[in-house]
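Sync notes, pocket subgroup
Present: LS, DG
LS reminded everyone that the earlier model was apo-only. Rerun requested with H2B included. Inputs:
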Amino acid sequence: MDKLSAEDRKRFLADHPNWTLVDGRDAMSASFRFENFIDAFGFMTQIALRAEKMDHHPEWSNVYNKVEITLTTHDVDGLSPRDTELAAFIDKLAP
Ligand SMILES: C[C@H](O)[C@H](O)[C@H]1CNC2=NC(N)=NC(=O)C2=N1
């Protein structure tokens, strides 16, 4: 697994405005807001199943209707193509 190339990360971020780079580490994060907790948790459940299949897991938190997600790849200590793959999947589920 390689780190994401400078070109690929630039393109991904331009095409996926939900995601922004995190200060101080090579990671990206996004915040999603739902009508209620059940919708937020359903979103998380779909992501959890996909993450487990990919063996690639998000850092995340949930407070009622809000879900905050940070993606990075521990194995490369930074962003990799797995992060953009999972982020693109997450965006398709997003409200
Ligand atoms: C042992 C296991 O395969 C690894 O720790 C996997 C699990 N999930 C992971 N998730 C993320 N985000 N990065 C990893 O490098 C990673 N590695």
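DG: The first strand starts at residue 20 and ends at 21.
LS: The domain at 6-93 is CATH 3.30.1360.20 (Gyrase A; domain 2).
Action: DG to write up.
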